């Protein structure tokens, strides 16, 4: 095993992990350092410099030895083991000084720095240990395994003896004095000795254990050779299978598959057991004397090495707990199983390579070895990539579809993918890794979910659309989108005022809305104020302030998902932090949130609005007048952004457009989902058609399940429906959007009256509103549901689409609209109302994020027009979303993709920018939070810091022990 001491391995096991650890920790330190006391900052710097110095020294030594073509020295391996072990132990002991409790919110640290240190530095310790064993166990010399086994077994008992002796001395020393006991120099000395002794004894234990395994695998005759198959079976088969069973609940009498979680992670998949058995078979088979067969054995053994290495990596940070676990828990020795399997597997691969290089060229042997090693990583990556493709195709179909195309999603592949997504969702209540798979879940979330998540609402919606079943997610009662009604004890608006100034340069009004918020009772603490404000058409939010302490904090215009995530995390702290959030809830409606409002304090927030004409604004029942009609000329003509195709048509200009009446027609959306016993709607449809619409056009039909299939005009819709298999869910949202898209893209003298035909209206997948599509239904927002009773039940497309309307005008009643720009060549139809409209004559270009806005109101009009176009063409979202958001940043104007967020301190702002970089790089349909639910406390990726802290306590010994009363 002389090759283990090649200095090149030190770059892989030490230099690279150390560099990554320093980079990750420096990133987290850059976010939280402003919250830390000076002593903690000094500790971060000291530990960082110490680690950097050790890494540089190790890299220089490795480079020197590589240039001299010499192996790593034994003393260097000892120095690495002792130095890095002491660094880790001291870091663990002083972890509370690095991050004082309560100083830094947990959500600002995606991964516990202490856990990262143990994870990234354990490969260094493991390699130094293997190199040291290789140094003192050359293959060409005889060695005895028995003394090493004895020393390894004795070490845990030595721990117990040392602690007992130190405890006895400490108690007698304290008992000799009549004075009350106070910690002194003796305790510091004892603590230092215990830490040092624990490090040395732990390293000794692993040295003797690994060396014993090396020696055993060297023997070609004698006792170990005769029993080689027995101990190989124990190490490669029995211990891994028992470990899997114990982790999955076998120890507690619950069977191998009692749940989808385990102590160290979710290893309940049959693949883990199958790979364990196959790996054991390949390692236990005798080496073939035939070179070709031996080469195949090398290929198979190297292919399964990924399995061995994975569990070795998973349990590597927990190896220091092996000794106390053996003492305290009878099954603690199972923590050593991955290490022993790793040593045996590495030894076997080394022997295969050495033997085959005598027959085949080095290139052939290396190709077989490297090709085998790549099998499992490539298989896992390929599986995850397939999951990504399936999931992202489904997300695109539902949330960013191309309405002009019909996509087909494999429901079985999607159902399996959604199951894996749920399994990999972080559940804060699980012990250690719970339902996740260490490292694999992190890799899955990075590759498949872009480091974000899918809310349970979306997971359930995808299930209902493509599979026709629900995950049990409870939808909000009534799917209401009305303005939130605060509880009587919630903070309330005390005063609301507005000031307006006409800006002649941009020919628009600049208004400030000033809100004062207070509690109805002074005993209320940490209350949150929420309200919704409907914005007039042509009104943009252009600035935001929140008073924090004695200063006015300007809101940061940030990506919406990142801002809402940061705001939710601060609320979850339940502490006196001061965020304020301004975000679009729906089309032309913003949500204002301020936290906290405590006691008798008064919180003040200001919102700047740009609007073309004077208007009124309603805030919690208070009506504010913005602008003065006498101070500026009326907008009598349409206002267009040059070259964009976006035009603002004021109410006055709209009244000058020709008034026309279009012919209505029924468009039946026929439910062909799996929930239908049979799709026989002829009688019901015939009854509706027997009551023709006034001046109505011929009816049209679309068959709806997960997909929407239009029936050609004049075709037999009933016959086509009978041939359609009943599958998936009734995706009514998608069907309605496609019909509205067609109406918007092809303005015609006719318009659809939508009728959803189904036996189970409650099973329909239906959005709460279609307000963003309102330009496609200027005559009326009413659609109908034709249920099993044959009654046409009216619903609204603008709000609470699931709730029946108490009253509605007759279907197809006379509703005149305005044709724009002319009745002879209309490009759009506008509602005949006294409110402005925004119309599009062509596809607007993506706003240039680098261009400085010369007229902010016109820039807001361009942004609004582009978003309106994008609503009907969501297929461009992923490609054009980032430039659109950057243009919003540049103009300083709120859009549905951005939010204004006012924050209290620099650490929160740094965390926001870090999260924003993540969300901007991710798929637009992914989430950062569960909808309408408080976020759980953030848990670190591949958690387990609590157990590592326990290790620190054990290693520190009496240094962390609470003082006992003096013995009288």
UniProtKB/TrEMBL annotation:
The chain crosses the membrane at residues 46-63, 75-93, 113-137, 149-169, 189-217, 229-250, 270-286, 298-319, 325-344, 364-385. It comes from the Bacteria. This is MSEP-CTERM sorting domain-containing protein. The keyword Membrane applies. The keyword Plastid does not apply. Residues 479-611 form the VIT domain. Keywords: Membrane, Transmembrane, Transmembrane helix.
